[in-house]
Structure formats: structure tokens, C-alpha cells
């Protein structure tokens, strides 16, 4: 590959979700949850972006950028 060809090869932007790298395919927390078939209105779900909990009321306007780390936690009954 020549230097000019290498410069044109697009490197996909990635985020980390629950410890695993994946392509950045959603613009907001709400869109990320929808892409994972997680209802944003469901009880027992918490989301953190770069170590800070994001209030549910802000999911639709909280944007995700390349390099961000997202943690999605679901509370499960029982012990």
C-alpha cells in the first residue's frame, strides 16, 4: 500500500461498551440502547458515560463520540 493509499483508508471510529470495543454507530445514549433492543423506558437500567452516570432524562440528548466508554447496567431481581 502506498503512503497516499494508506492515508485514504478509513479507520472506523470506536467506542467501548461494557468493556468491549465496537464501532461508533449511534449518536446518542438513547440510540445506542435502541440499537441493542433495550427500551429506554424500562425499569432497572442505568447508563454511565466515561464514568459518570447519565440521568435517564438526558439519554436522548447525550451524544456519544469516538473513544467514549459506555457502561449499561441492568438490575436483576433475586440474589
From TrEMBL:
Signal peptide (from-to): none
Stretches of the chain forming a coiled coil according to its record: none
UniProt superkingdom: Bacteria
InterPro entries assigned: Beta-grasp_dom_sf (IPR012675), Mopterin_synth/thiamin_S_b (IPR016155), Thi_S (IPR010035), ThiS/MoaD-like (IPR003749)
Gene3D superfamilies: 3.10.20.30
Name of this protein: Sulfur carrier protein ThiS
Organism of derivation: Rhodoplanes tepidamans (Rhodoplanes cryptolactis)
Originating gene: thiS
Amino acid at each position: 500500500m502506498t503512503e497516499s493509499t494508506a492515508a485514504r483508508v478509513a479507520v472506523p471510529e470506536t467506542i467501548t461498551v461494557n468493556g468491549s470495543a465496537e464501532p461508533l454507530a449511534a449518536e446518542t445514549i438513547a440510540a445506542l440502547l435502541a440499537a441493542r433492543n433495550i427500551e429506554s423506558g424500562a425499569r432497572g437500567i442505568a447508563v454511565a458515560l466515561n464514568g459518570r452516570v447519565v440521568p435517564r432524562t438526558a439519554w436522548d440528548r447525550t451524544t456519544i463520540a469516538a473513544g467514549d466508554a459506555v457502561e449499561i447496567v441492568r438490575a436483576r431481581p433475586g440474589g
